[in-house]
Amino acid sequence: DFAKLDYHRALRVGYPEVIFTEGKDIEHLKHILLDMIKREITAIATRMSKDTYEKIKHISDKMIYNELARILVINPKENEKVGKVAVVTGGTADIPVAEEAAVTLETFGNNVVRVYDVGVAGIHRLFLNLDKIKNANCIVAVAGMEGALPSVIAGLVDVPVIAVPTSIGYGANFKGLSALLTMLNSCAAGISVVNIDNGFGAGYIASLINKGFSGNGVIK
Amino acid sequence: DFAKLDYHRALRVGYPEVIFTEGKDIEHLKHILLDMIKREITAIATRMSKDTYEKIKHISDKMIYNELARILVINPKENEKVGKVAVVTGGTADIPVAEEAAVTLETFGNNVVRVYDVGVAGIHRLFLNLDKIKNANCIVAVAGMEGALPSVIAGLVDVPVIAVPTSIGYGANFKGLSALLTMLNSCAAGISVVNIDNGFGAGYIASLINKGFSGNGVIK
Amino acid sequence: DFAKLDYHRALRVGYPEVIFTEGKDIEHLKHILLDMIKREITAIATRMSKDTYEKIKHISDKMIYNELARILVINPKENEKVGKVAVVTGGTADIPVAEEAAVTLETFGNNVVRVYDVGVAGIHRLFLNLDKIKNANCIVAVAGMEGALPSVIAGLVDVPVIAVPTSIGYGANFKGLSALLTMLNSCAAGISVVNIDNGFGAGYIASLINKGFSGNGVIK
Amino acid sequence: DFAKLDYHRALRVGYPEVIFTEGKDIEHLKHILLDMIKREITAIATRMSKDTYEKIKHISDKMIYNELARILVINPKENEKVGKVAVVTGGTADIPVAEEAAVTLETFGNNVVRVYDVGVAGIHRLFLNLDKIKNANCIVAVAGMEGALPSVIAGLVDVPVIAVPTSIGYGANFKGLSALLTMLNSCAAGISVVNIDNGFGAGYIASLINKGFSGNGVIK
Amino acid sequence: DFAKLDYHRALRVGYPEVIFTEGKDIEHLKHILLDMIKREITAIATRMSKDTYEKIKHISDKMIYNELARILVINPKENEKVGKVAVVTGGTADIPVAEEAAVTLETFGNNVVRVYDVGVAGIHRLFLNLDKIKNANCIVAVAGMEGALPSVIAGLVDVPVIAVPTSIGYGANFKGLSALLTMLNSCAAGISVVNIDNGFGAGYIASLINKGFSGNGVIK
Amino acid sequence: DFAKLDYHRALRVGYPEVIFTEGKDIEHLKHILLDMIKREITAIATRMSKDTYEKIKHISDKMIYNELARILVINPKENEKVGKVAVVTGGTADIPVAEEAAVTLETFGNNVVRVYDVGVAGIHRLFLNLDKIKNANCIVAVAGMEGALPSVIAGLVDVPVIAVPTSIGYGANFKGLSALLTMLNSCAAGISVVNIDNGFGAGYIASLINKGFSGNGVIK
Amino acid sequence: DFAKLDYHRALRVGYPEVIFTEGKDIEHLKHILLDMIKREITAIATRMSKDTYEKIKHISDKMIYNELARILVINPKENEKVGKVAVVTGGTADIPVAEEAAVTLETFGNNVVRVYDVGVAGIHRLFLNLDKIKNANCIVAVAGMEGALPSVIAGLVDVPVIAVPTSIGYGANFKGLSALLTMLNSCAAGISVVNIDNGFGAGYIASLINKGFSGNGVIK
Amino acid sequence: DFAKLDYHRALRVGYPEVIFTEGKDIEHLKHILLDMIKREITAIATRMSKDTYEKIKHISDKMIYNELARILVINPKENEKVGKVAVVTGGTADIPVAEEAAVTLETFGNNVVRVYDVGVAGIHRLFLNLDKIKNANCIVAVAGMEGALPSVIAGLVDVPVIAVPTSIGYGANFKGLSALLTMLNSCAAGISVVNIDNGFGAGYIASLINKGFSGNGVIK
Ligand SMILES: Nc1ncnc2c1ncn2[C@@H]1O[C@H](COP(=O)(O)O)[C@@H](O)[C@H]1O
Ligand SMILES: Nc1ncnc2c1ncn2[C@@H]1O[C@H](COP(=O)(O)O)[C@@H](O)[C@H]1O
Ligand SMILES: Nc1ncnc2c1ncn2[C@@H]1O[C@H](COP(=O)(O)O)[C@@H](O)[C@H]1O
Ligand SMILES: Nc1ncnc2c1ncn2[C@@H]1O[C@H](COP(=O)(O)O)[C@@H](O)[C@H]1O
Ligand SMILES: [Mg+2]
Ligand SMILES: [Mg+2]
Ligand SMILES: [Mg+2]
Ligand SMILES: [Mg+2]
Ligand SMILES: [Mg+2]
Ligand SMILES: [Mg+2]
Ligand SMILES: [Mg+2]
Ligand SMILES: [Mg+2]
User: Fold this and answer.
1) E123-158 pLDDT, tens digit each
2) What is the mean pLDDT of chain B?
3) Where are the alpha helices (DSSP H) in E50-165?
4) Do H182 and F146 contact (CB within 8 A), yes or no?
5) Total beta-carbon pairs less than 8 A apart between chain C and chain D
6) Sequential pLDDT tens for chain B (220 residues)
7) Which atom of ligand 2 is nearest to the CA of D155?
8) Per the CB < 8 Å rule, is H15 touching E135?
């Protein structure tokens, strides 16, 4: 009774509730997962460490765990994918956050193209991959350290860019603050920003946008 | 020659360059405005104070100044408006930032519905206006102080919410930091955030989204 | 002799001293606990980890440990409970802090009603539970991430709201700073705030308020 | 139509809406004030500078302005005062914030006792005035610089202490941050905190508490 | 006697002392300037506002003031210029800081090429000017807002890049903090950073580097 | 009655109360000053701007104002000076803060030697003046920007160094934070620190130390 | 050869160099300790964890380790103690930092009186111990959480107070920042501050002061 | 395919790409290293912990690991060294960061002179070693705690100083922030700064400078 799952959410906002794993008691977590599995709701749990997964994996076989993305999909089901979202990273160390976005997007029924390790220190790598990126309804741009990638991309494309700062870096990076401020202050227009390392949040809003563009949103 | 205007931008990203007024020398500013006027480009200059406007208004009659929104439109032209974006505020003091978003949206050819002063301290006001808000392809949610409005809205709608923190408040508000952090940490999904007081940035990306939803973006 | 326990406190402020466990040497801690047990003072020690409890539990059987709340009650005794305080959380991960408040309240003789997981991302859950909340002399509102719950509640009730930010979240949450600033800047009146994760502090002041309202405080 | 006044608030939470003056357009402000005056609602507008008052004072004679407290009372009416709240300051420079609390309390029908300039640098001054302070249902403790006053008071009394940090000080005071952190981290129990310089917020919650203690709240 | 001018500096470090104007009493400033003029030392005073200049300009005619760069040159003399340093900016509002660097460089005997307004939001502008930039012994890269320009440049050239964050921007820019952190965290190698708005400091170290490269430093 | 002057202080701590001028209402200030003048207490008021002085100077002729130090001495009287304190600055812009310390010291009966403009950028200037500095019972070291002077001094002397960070500087100086952190983190022993720009506080504690060393303190 | 021990320091500043243990390689550390032991210098190493001590304890028997204070004394020798310094704490969790100060003081030849757990939440405990405190040439006041103890003490005594903030606390304590800011902003005069948890630094400067007061410093 | 190695970099900027080890998946890392080894590129991987090295060391024998510097050199080859760079530290705990710079410099073909443990607390140690330092084309100055060393050095030499703040220290050091701000605010000219603990970045730019000075850069 401690958890009030929001079963109307799928009706109201078009997607089921998403479970935030961190900080939850294992018994609470099992209880919530089993309840959703029983109701046959397809949903995801985010920020689930390998450790936590090991502790809950026995409760059901209707769950698929993606270690890199740290996402658990409950009652996974095949879906048809629409439109296209490009998920782009500055470096290879940003890939786990990018995968959190990509897996969220795919679970919610979007085509994803991954373009990784094209950061501004070797800007020609971005240009070599520009076609893939431009050819999307929305771009999720993931970068740590100075986080300049979304600014450069937004100056080159005509679709919304969702920027995700990562905590990759050290020292005056202050656990992602540096990249976060960079992205919020971008001199390029067409960018909006989610929390540090919040691949899920970026994937979620990118899904709303891509589906709208693809005629799968609620067109008015 | 000091300024390198980006005349290909309209071709490349679908909109002309936008002039950031603050910090520019008046002579530089006049030079840039006249050059654009001469080339018959429809564009906007943002964050223009009344004071600055008074100093440049004599250079041409092809400019319209909106004092509340602090925006100057150059070579204004009639446009047909598509889709719908809701611009919502928590309080009445957030209206100038909201108008910056709304004027940007209208100049770029989007229908706008304004729903002001429906903040979380009197949550029933939001519910009374929910139909107007839900009936939009994208929502720009503007709030200062604790900035909780976008979280509540995003839990009620199925379209992207662009959150704009304002610097309204005092003390531990730290000039908008409080609202900014609130919005970045929202437990509701479907939100992304722009810089403090950045009505223009929110309007710009909302325009990209609304046009895409309305079939006026580059559908792939 | 290193510790100067404040035995007059119960006379002076109506409650015995509370022991802050963190950072104390185990031998010092045992010494303080035994001294209080010997004097038959009913008191609590807060922020006691499971680990620390394991190290001290053998010293006496006049102690009850609550793991979720991380509270040790010394010389527990039955008490009659008065009035009513509602302890409310935004998510399920906020429950340990809420339990610290609730156990403090119950030990000090207050009736408590728990309403957990009714955060602003699914605001209807709050409305469904509003009767329980309104029907209280004081509300302890516990929330992490953006911490918007107290603002919404304070706009709906006519009793004091004690807001407790938690460190639940990540990235630009900065270990609870986000929720703390939200609560300090609330645009709703009737809220005051305690330290991040300070369930004990919230429970203590809520007890003072509830007892005063119930005619069990020192009425003047 | 831009402002959605919350006329049910008095019914719902027991007090009328309070107007936050800062950042509002003068025309908007006049509009809101006149509307409330016409409806014969007794209310207050806070953080109104002398300057702003000069610009609006001609619109009606049903307004009383308190310059030190920066509060405007609309449709002032005589009220019977109940209970007692002590408003205490550390220094003389904290008096304006204290008066904001005191005027709020008096307008809402509470007896107030003022005890100013009794900060911890000369702690005997507090002891000389302790009777006045103890003899209250709630204490509003206002302090700048290091803000230690509420901690000392809370160790001496058995009623709730509402702590108000002020921005008085300089250098590493960081505009009140120093006093704010002090109060949030108080090792004395029974304290909760409002925003820097938020005399109104402290007065409001103290009023809720005092009325509850005095049997004028909604006793359950 | 209050000021201890460092007349050996020119011998010791190769350049005369530089006067920091801000915060100095006008009488102190005049005293220092006249002393240097009398000794026929060629030197500069930095961060001198137009206002201050108006107050001291009558003391001698051996001074040239550059308003945009806010620099006063004392005992200006013709010098032969060596090598080449490129001074590059992201936007037009960064020009005053860039000019502080450029004027410092020219006064100290370096050739300067200015390439302004080539920021990352329109990256093709940088590529169009790359020849001018590459053709230099050292690059001073000046940028505000997100400050990404130095990262992109450093990935394209084989000479040292001195990065100068400016305070241009607003909101989460925090007066240049955003650009400063970006530059310190650059994932491109070959960059080092000076203080926010410190055009002088960048010009000074760029001069040391350019002269060394040009065989005019102390080669070992 | 609003101000509770601490007339026992001179007896208790050896010095009269010191008036902090900033933020005080002019009428309150006059009242306090006149009260002290009437009681023939020799005292000082600190941080008094020229402006404020102009508004109060007519109330009595028993006051001397020092504009550079921003100190007002009330009932000034001749005193014999003991021992010696060196007040040292890094630059000439730090002189006002240094004078606040020096005037405090002299008013309280200490000999002062001033050694200004000997900062670490030209370290030989410090060595040239070392005899004057070493020949003191206590050193007040005042520095802005990076604030490294106290560290260097403390490595050269065998007496206590009181370090005063100033707000001189710009950009990442953050109004004195830079110098403050430097001084708190000094790798040299024998340093303690007062608030940014707090010349008064440094002078006060240096006076306590010098008098103790000189046999004029309360020797035990 | 990597370490340049400062053997003249004892001559120059009156005390031998002090070794900062943290971050040093074990082999480097052994090398430095052995060198000092061989030269028969009495010295201390600070911030040595139990772990590190276990790794080096075999190298010599001329070392005494104090675990609570985390100090290693090398070539300990009997000394006559002069004067008196009071070391005072707010809580029992502050004792380790206080012991670092006390052991430093004793090793350097000062009498120490310890007065622990007399924080402002139970201010009468301070008054009961005031005689011991007043009867000292210098007071080291150690406190965590809100750190208000030094302010209260400095208002009661006529000797210098060296304030030491500790990192005891949680949440908005920010690892001691709260107590640090409190102490820097004290409205009581006669306080100066050292780094968070820097018991050694406080002990060192208190030793300089106490010896000067006791006629054992270099009297001028 | 996830990693886009920048093989043209050596041609474009004169050095091969540098691998940032932290945060990379072990399989990704092995893949990247093997690819570079196969192509016979001499390169380095930075910030590689002993742990990580143990996991990858079996993949090839064409790698040399330096534990203190945490650098892995791939396809190491003999090179002729030119010019001279001095790497200087304040303390012995700064040596690991200094070694990161020194090893980077040596791998890239520069002569290095190491001068360690000459911090400002014993400034004579710096003077004793000044000849070695002055006799260099560029100085890398590494310091933690207050980080004052670069300021002192820059006042004594006529070559560029690259300042590296380290995270050595505790409390108000805030993991290197203190030293970083010190260096950015240096009152000495000729300094530029890299990220906290970024020995690699300092070594890289120092190499560019030294080679240019030595006639091995691209002289124009
Ligand atoms: N990775 C994530 N980052 C931010 N918010 C999330 C994340 N995963 C889930 N959430 C949100 O957290 C809320 C669930 O919290 P809880 O009730 O504690 O499970 C939902 O509103 C989700 O939208
Ligand atoms: N969880 C807590 N948060 C804040 N303060 C506390 C907490 N628990 C106990 N305290 C306070 O800490 C003080 C006891 O500290 P100590 O003497 O170190 O045990 C008492 O004044 C308590 O009111
Ligand atoms: N410049 C100053 N900096 C810090 N504290 C001060 C200063 N001047 C006076 N004070 C302190 O402020 C208190 C007086 O405050 P008030 O009662 O508001 O005048 C006294 O305790 C003084 O020691
Ligand atoms: N220690 C370091 N500090 C800062 N940047 C580095 C460091 N080591 C490598 N880099 C940069 O990080 C980038 C490589 O990132 P990645 O592609 O993720 O390996 C290159 O541009 C390097 O210049
Ligand atoms: Mg890469
Ligand atoms: Mg409103
Ligand atoms: Mg939930
Ligand atoms: Mg006073
Ligand atoms: Mg431009
Ligand atoms: Mg000077
Ligand atoms: Mg205690
Ligand atoms: Mg050393």
Assistant:
1) 888 999 998 998 899 999 999 998 999 999 998 998
2) 91
3) 50-56, 95-107, 124-128, 130-134, 149-154
4) yes
5) 131
6) 677 766 665 556 666 678 999 988 899 899 999 998 998 888 899 999 999 999 999 999 999 999 999 999 999 988 899 999 999 999 999 999 999 999 999 999 999 999 999 988 888 889 999 989 988 999 999 999 989 999 999 989 989 999 999 999 999 999 999 999 999 999 899 999 999 999 999 999 999 999 998 876 543 3
7) 21
8) no
Nearest Cα to Cα of residue A45 among A72, A16, A9: A72
* Residue nearest to ligand 3 atom 9, measured at CA: F20
Instruction: Give dist(CA D40, CA D215) in Å, integer.
Output: 27
At E122, the amino acid letter reads G
CA angle G92–G198–F83, rounded 5-degree value: 115
B168 alpha carbon, distance to own chain's centre: 16
**Count of CB atoms situated within 10 Å of the CB of D58:** 8
Task: Work out the widest C-alpha separation in chain H, in whole angstroms.
Answer: 55
Cβ of residue F215 closer than 8 Å to a chain G Cβ: yes
Judged against a pLDDT cut of 80, whether residue A12 lies above it is answered with no
Q: Measured between alpha carbons, how far is H216 from E100 in angstroms, rounded to an integer?
A: 30
Does residue D2 sit at the F interface (CB-CB below 8 Å)? no
- The band of D84, judged by pLDDT with boundaries at 50, 70 and 90, is very high
Nearest CB to H195; choose among E18, E185, E196 = E185
pLDDT at residue C108, rounded to an integer: 92
Euclidean distance between CA atoms B122 and C156, whole angstroms: 8
| pLDDT (tens digit per residue) in B117-126 | 998 888 888 9
Identify the pLDDT of residue D10.
60
Whether C98 and C143 have beta carbons less than 8 Å apart is answered as no
CA distances from E103 to A102, C220, D145, F133, H186 (A): 50, 74, 44, 39, 21
Interstrand relation of G43-46 and G71-74 (parallel, antiparallel or unpaired) = antiparallel
Residue D3 CB-density burial (10 A; 0-12 exposed, 13-18 middle, 19+ buried): middle
Q: Which amino acid is at D144?
A: G
DSSP H44: E
**Residue C178: CB within 6 Å of ligand 2?**
no
Longest Cα pair distance anywhere in chain E, in angstroms? 55
Q: Does F104 contact ligand 3 (Cβ within 6 A)?
A: no
The pLDDT assigned to F218 comes to: 41
Largest CA-CA distance found in chain B, in angstroms, rounded: 55
Residue E122: the pLDDT is: 83
Burial label for F202, CB within 10 Å (0-12, 13-18, 19+), is buried
- Whole-number Å distance between alpha carbons of E148 and E163: 10
Query: Of the segments D32-36, F51-55, H27-31, which one has the largest average pLDDT value?
Result: F51-55
- Mean pLDDT of all residues belonging to chain H: 91
- 3-state DSSP helix/strand/coil percent for chain B, to nearest 5? 40, 20, 40
| Ligand 3 pocket, residue F199 CB under 6 Å | no
pLDDT tens by residue, F2-53: 777 766 666 566 677 789 999 898 998 999 999 999 988 888 999 999 999 9
CA E143 to centroid of ligand 9, rounded, Å: 11
Nearest to F44 by CA among F36, F55, F52: F36
Question: Shortest CA distance to D190 belongs to which of D158, D143, D212?
Answer: D158
| Residue of C176 and G14 predicted with greater confidence | C176
Question: In this model, does residue E42 exceed pLDDT 90?
Answer: no
A169 CB neighbours in chain E (<8 A) are 185
Residue reference for tokens 């009372």: D73
Instruction: Give dist(CA G187, CA D120) in Å, integer.
Output: 8
Confidence bin at A166 (pLDDT 50/70/90): very high
